[in-house]
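Translate structure to sequence.
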């Protein structure tokens, strides 16, 4: 046996272990609009905890259009544990007159970025958790399922794309988890009003 053969015998290559954790890919605009459409707002901190607890998500990518005035929101998302991926919006190329137009709508299509990250991170996660009810993700969802990499599709409400109907067994409606995920504004109790002292006259006292 040659020295080279001995090395191969006693120093075998280590097999690469399959990833055990899941990654979430979140279409923030679709999720935000979808929950507000049925009358509630998402608590981002609670949602991150839900992803970790129920879906074993270690990395949650939040794809959202960049608006300068929303810096505080982005920071809150980062503090809650999201990896925020900002997409430049059309607003950045518009004039002040165009921005002031009543028909103006902020647009920041994150679909391409989200799909790119799903494919780029493919070897790093066990399963992908897609958070969106948008039918534009049909092709990548189909591919993930074929590869055994689709964990679940979380949709905001019952009105998700008909293209996703064939994946109904993988779909979870977040509106059915409203009670545990809703952002609730804490109202301060009204200040206690000072009770007026009742000045009752003692027996024999002049009124």
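Result:
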């Amino acid at each position: 046996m040659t020295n080279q053969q001995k090395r191969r015998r006693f120093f075998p290559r280590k097999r690469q272990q399959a990833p055990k954790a899941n990654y979430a890919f979140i279409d923030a605009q679709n999720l935000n609009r979808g929950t507000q459409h049925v009358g509630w707002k998402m608590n981002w901190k609670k949602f991150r905890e839900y992803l970790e607890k129920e879906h074993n998500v270690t990395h949650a990518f939040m794809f959202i259009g960049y608006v300068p005035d929303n810096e505080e929101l982005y920071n809150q998302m980062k503090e809650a544990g999201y990896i925020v991926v900002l997409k430049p919006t059309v607003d950045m190329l518009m004039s002040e007159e165009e921005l002031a137009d009543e028909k103006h709508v902020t647009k920041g299509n994150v679909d391409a970025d989200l799909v790119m990250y799903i494919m780029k991170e493919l070897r790093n996660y066990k399963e992908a958790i897609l958070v969106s009810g948008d039918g534009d993700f049909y092709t990548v969802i189909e591919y993930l399922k074929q590869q055994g990499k689709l964990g679940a599709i979380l949709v905001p409400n019952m009105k998700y794309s008909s293209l996703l109907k064939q994946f109904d067994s993988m779909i979870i409606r977040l509106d059915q988890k409203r009670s545990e995920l809703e952002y609730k504004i804490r109202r301060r109790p009204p200040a206690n009003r000072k009770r007026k002292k009742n000045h009752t006259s003692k027996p024999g006292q002049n009124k």
